Amino acid sequence: MVCVGETMAALVPDPPRPLERAGRLSLSVAGAESNAAMYLAGHGIPVAWLSALGDDPLGRRVRATVSAAGVDVTHVRTDTRRPTGLLVKSPDPSTGTRVHYYRTGSAASALGPDLLDEEPVRSASLLHFTGITPALSPSCRDLVTKTLATPADARTHAVGFDVDHRPALWPDGSAATVLRRLADRADIVFVGLDEAQGLWGEDLTVTGVRHLLPHPRILVVKDGARAATAVTGHGVYTVPAPRTTVVEPVGAGDAFAAGFLAGLLRGLTTTQALGLGHITAVSALRVTGDHGPLPAPSRIERLLGLPDPEWEALGPVREPAPRA
How far apart are CA 44 and CA 64, in angstroms? Predict the structure, then answer.
């Protein structure tokens, strides 16, 4: 499996508080596609991350962090002319986390369709993109558009697409049209219900989203802390989200997508894959960074084997992290 997209260095107040009141910042990495790749690797799925980084200390930090999670980074490009992107988080209990991006002209923004002619894309069984990439630059949009231009039944690999709408990246107002067009050409699509309502109509239901995106083989609609639903050619499957304490929501969608895809690749049922998506998302929800530790494999297997009433009554799916 190959995940394609930009990853940036990230500065986060430690402990979490609004940026203007922070006394200390911790350095980590953040990127939707590499988040997914790291969680896939955590589930034992062979996965490569494909992107570009600047020839700078932040780029080396990003590469080392993603590699340390078990992801193949050997095909990530090093750009000697453009920098690694940077983001800064500002958590606020009353208004939520705001993210400030410094990524214009970054190394990854120069990616283009030529990437599709190289390894590991040519030997991939599944390529995974998000709606962030086509918003970065015209060449990045061409990359995703070309990937999805081949009809699904003629592709040599499946394509996953997480809508992942970031309004700040779409100042021209084209997000609704572009993201719907791209998503409808993918094989497996992830979208939040609130995200779909913000893009395509505030009264949308899961059924309405399916009417807008009729072509993906699997459409997964995530309804926040309530449930996630997968619509396939074989039926509609809904699994409630387990209850958990949320430290920060950023990264949970990437984790969910990784868990679901890992479930499919491991041959789980659609319902079990949704459950694995929820379990993986909790690992992100309970940490201030985008990537948290997964439960032990034995615990995951036990959770996935629970009957419906016990699953719905679950508390947190892993123990709280020890306090520093």
Answer: 19
